[in-house]
Amino acid sequence: MNMEDLYRLLRTGHVQAQGIVDTVCDPLLVLDASLCVQHANRAFFETFKVERDDSIGRPLFELGDGQWNIPALRDLLMQVIPKATAVINYEVEHDFPEIGRRVMLVTARTLFHPDGASHTMLLTIEDATERHGRELAKDMLFGELRHRMKNMLAVARSIASQTKTEGRSAEEYRDVFLGRFSALIDAEDLAFTEHGEAGIDQILARTLAPFSRDGQALVIEPGPAVELSPSMIMSLSLVLHELATNAAKHGALSKAGGKVRIRRHLDDESGRLRLDWVESGGPPVSPPDATGYGTRLIRSTITYNLQGTVELDYAADGFRAEVVIPLGNGTSA
Questions:
Q1: CATH for 3-127?
Q2: Taking residues 26-44, what's their average pLDDT?
Q3: Per residue in 271-295, pLDDT tens?
Q4: Which of 10, 148, 197, 232 meets the CB 3.0–4.6 Å disulfide criterion with 227?
């Protein structure tokens, strides 16, 4: 074999090796013992928007704007060659020139050599930005789920412990408790189904549907579209269920011809939503002798959970309630 054939063979082998390296999708660097860049693949230049002449022969920690000059990473890489160990998926988060803030996973291994005398390092870089974002979103979702479940169980426990037992049979207690608990579950289901927010029309229709006998007893007047946050959905659904339950037991919905009218008004300046619950056509109304759990639930939920106000008016011709709540995370559509 003459020198020309040998050169051609070596050249072919080099081109083939470079082609294999350039086929690797993740950025790849070959570093010498002093951590200078000997080779880089096409993915490295394309990912970091740098030129070959600005990278080959330069120390890793001087590339670009010094984005790789991270003391902890430098210490780790300096341990790879002398100890023949490896750095696996070391996380680097940085504002890289041209491509912005990214999360990169860096893996460094000493290049294999038959006699074990290699001082060359192979550095691979994986862009994990999207995966990192998905993991953060998943962690936030699980955190929200735990928070919601904790709140829902706390409310369920409060409903169970404070629902009146005196003078009721087990069946009556069961029916009252399950009614309130079902409203709680429906509110949670609505919040999850609507991916976090739901409109006031959906909440009114879904919560009050079981109490509308003929479609005429409950009238929901048209009003501004308002989106409510999950915590507001739960609280407002419980209040509406309690108002409807009271109307069905003692008020307008307990008598044929009785009617409940629900109006809403949005004050754009103060960002407050007002709901008016007006009953008519029911039996005569008088203030209760004692405050029951339902009334306490309405007042405490509006005051503490929704930071709002509620006025209950036991007018003789029909019970009325005015609920005013700041929208907070809710928004008008």
A1: 3.30.450.20
A2: 87
A3: 899 999 999 998 888 888 777 777 8
A4: 197
